[in-house]
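User: I'm preparing a small set of examples for a lab meeting where we compare how different chains pack in three dimensions. I only have the primary sequence for this one, and I'd like the structure in token form so I can line it up with the others. Please keep the answer compact; I'll paste it straight into my notes.
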Amino acid sequence: MTIKGRLLQVLEKYIPEKLANKLWEKASSSFAKGAEGTANVFHNATDGVRLESVWRNVEYPVLKDNVNLIYHDVFR
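Assistant: Understood. Below is the structure token output for the 76-residue chain.
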């Protein structure tokens, strides 16, 4: 996780959820736009990806066209 992501994990405990979600979306978009080459994606094989997740709605749409994504299923 990026430094920005770690900071957001701490901040989200103290700010309204709606604001935290917007900050995560902005950070995720920035991260995805800066990615290049190949990226490994680890998904929970049991639960899948939530339809409302930042990954699905913000990061993936940017990454899918610009990065070679390699998917891995994780079993917990």
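A couple of notes for your slides: Helices lie at 3-11, 17-33, 54-66. The chain has a mean pLDDT of 90.

User: Perfect, thanks.
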